[in-house]
């Protein structure tokens, strides 16, 4: 085998490899000799088929298999001898000229091909003990617990049928058909929808116009969608709804006591409050960790600046860009609506893609150097948790992940990342900072970009 380096530019390498015809022919003869004891041909006793006869019958197909294996072995040898870690699979370019290919297959000419490699950079890890992180902490207050319990109670408040017209606080069961400029629109119709007047859960102005309605009455409700409405095609637009009331109900009295808690499956009101407090604490802790992780990734990005494999960065960018443009098309928004241009947006998202790839490589290197691994039990628990998200299809989901290595890797990756983050937080200097709820849940521009 003869190897000539053609390119060594950044993280890209290219080599010309020549595999002599004599070597390929010798390997093909070895393979044919192995076949002699296995092949059954009419007119020959088992194990007595001449190699020359096998070569006439199977020579070309065997040589093609040998060439495929030889190319893989040659590429692996180049990678091993140079100590490369590959970012992607080698890109092999075999001869395209039909006559040249024919001569190689017939064993009359050496095989000459080029192989392109994109390698991972050598990463010098920084001093993680030098990282200082502020961890926002927020204790759960009795007021928070009380507000949550009250919301739970309101969501479970009983209602009784009412013969009179609807008033503020009443619940009205309605069916409606919405139109824009006289035309029905997607998502504008509903059947047996319960509306609590004054709850502010519907489009502004919708609930108030139901005051005074009675069962079996139909009326037109005119509203204007908010400018920041999630469906961009409806934002700021005026719509009309033909609304028919099927039932009007008045809220019944309800007492927050142990009996109420028991209707929710709890032993007592105190037990309900403890569960609510625990849930709020989990939400605070998750939000706090998300902010600490963001600061940790910023610190890692500052400690590790190196060239990232261009193809990996491009693939990451394409994934981000496709997601962004698809969402903008669905919302019928343009870059001008976002206060930027397509060129500027591309530049910004390329920076984000580079950062993601760089941080991914750093986290992988940290995990490898510190023997951080994801156990099979952890992956299995992740598969079970994912399957539970699809009631009635658990078995299909389970089989999908167990038979799809790439899908399984998509579950393993975030577990690995969180374990590396835990490892780094243990090494960093973490300073707990008391914050308000508004500060803890505030979303800054960096969080949005992340």
UniProtKB/TrEMBL annotation:
Family membership: Belongs to the FKBP-type PPIase family. Tig subfamily.
Organism of derivation: Ancylobacter pratisalsi
Record's protein name: Trigger factor
Organism ancestry: Bacteria, Pseudomonadati, Pseudomonadota, Alphaproteobacteria, Hyphomicrobiales
UniProt-annotated location(s): Cytoplasm
Domain notes: Consists of 3 domains; the N-terminus binds the ribosome, the middle domain has PPIase activity, while the C-terminus has intrinsic chaperone activity on its own.
Keywords of the record: Cell cycle, Cell division, Chaperone, Cytoplasm, Isomerase, Rotamase
A Pfam short name: Trigger_C
Function: Involved in protein export. Acts as a chaperone by maintaining the newly synthesized protein in an open conformation. Functions as a peptidyl-prolyl cis-trans isomerase.
Entry GO CC: cytoplasm
An annotated GO BP: cell division
MF annotations from Gene Ontology: peptidyl-prolyl cis-trans isomerase activity; protein folding chaperone; ribosome binding
InterPro entries: PPIase_dom_sf (IPR046357), PPIase_FKBP_dom (IPR001179), Trig_fac (IPR005215), Trigger_fac_C (IPR008880), Trigger_fac_C_sf (IPR037041), Trigger_fac_ribosome-bd_bac (IPR008881), Trigger_fac_ribosome-bd_sf (IPR036611), Trigger_fact/SurA_dom_sf (IPR027304)
Domain of life from the UniProt record: Bacteria
Gene giving rise to this polypeptide: tig
Major enzyme class: isomerase
Primary location recorded for the protein, binned into one broad class: cytoplasm
């Amino acid at each position: 085998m003869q190897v000539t380096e053609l390119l060594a530019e950044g993280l890209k390498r290219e080599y010309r490899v020549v595999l002599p015809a004599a070597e390929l022919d010798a390997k093909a003869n070895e393979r044919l000799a192995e076949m002699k004891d296995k092949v059954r041909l009419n007119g020959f006793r088992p194990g007595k088929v001449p190699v020359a006869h096998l070569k006439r019958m199977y020579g070309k197909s065997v040589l093609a298999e040998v060439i495929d294996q030889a190319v893989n072995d040659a590429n692996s040898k180049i990678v091993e001898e140079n100590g490369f870690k590959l970012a992607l699979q080698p890109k092999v370019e075999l001869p395209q000229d039909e006559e040249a290919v024919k001569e190689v297959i017939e064993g009359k000419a050496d095989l000459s091909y080029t192989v392109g490699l994109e390698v991972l950079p050598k990463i010098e890890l920084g001093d993680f003990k030098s990282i200082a992180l502020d961890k926002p902490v927020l204790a759960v207050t009795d007021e928070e617990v009380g507000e949550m319990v009250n919301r739970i109670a309101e969501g479970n408040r009983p209602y009784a049928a009412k013969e009179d017209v609807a008033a503020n606080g009443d619940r009205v069961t309605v069916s409606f058909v919405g139109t824009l400029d006289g035309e029905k629109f997607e998502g504008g119709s509903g059947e047996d929808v319960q509306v609590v007047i004054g709850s502010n859960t519907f489009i502004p102005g919708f609930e108030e116009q139901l005051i005074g309605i009675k069962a079996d009455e139909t009326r037109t409700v005119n509203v204007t969608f908010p400018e920041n409405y999630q469906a961009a095609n409806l934002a700021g637009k005026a719509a009309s709804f033909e609304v028919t009331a099927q039932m009007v109900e008045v809220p019944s009295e309800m007492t927050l006591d142990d009996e109420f808690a028991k209707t929710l499956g709890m032993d007592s009101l105190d037990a309900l409050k403890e569960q609510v407090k625990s849930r709020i604490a989990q939400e605070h802790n998750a939000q706090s960790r998300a902010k600490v992780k963001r600061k940790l990734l910023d610190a890692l990005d500052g400690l590790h600046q190196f060239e990232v494999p261009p193809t990996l960065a491009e693939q990451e960018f394409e994934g981000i860009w496709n997601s962004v443009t698809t969402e903008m098309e669905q919302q019928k928004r343009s870059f001008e609506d976002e206060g930027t241009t397509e060129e500027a947006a591309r530049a910004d998202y390329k920076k984000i893609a580079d950062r993601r790839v760089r941080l991914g490589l750093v986290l992988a290197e940290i995990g490898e150097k510190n023997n951080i691994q994801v156990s099979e039990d952890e992956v299995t628990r992740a598969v079970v948790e994912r399957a539970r998200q699809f009631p009635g299809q658990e078995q299909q989901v389970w089989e999908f992940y167990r038979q799809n290595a790439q899908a399984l890797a998509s579950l393993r990756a975030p577990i690995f990342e969180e374990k590396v983050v835990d490892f780094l937080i243990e090494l960093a200097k973490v300073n707990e900072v008391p914050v308000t709820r508004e500060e803890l849940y505030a979303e800054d521009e960096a969080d949005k970009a992340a």
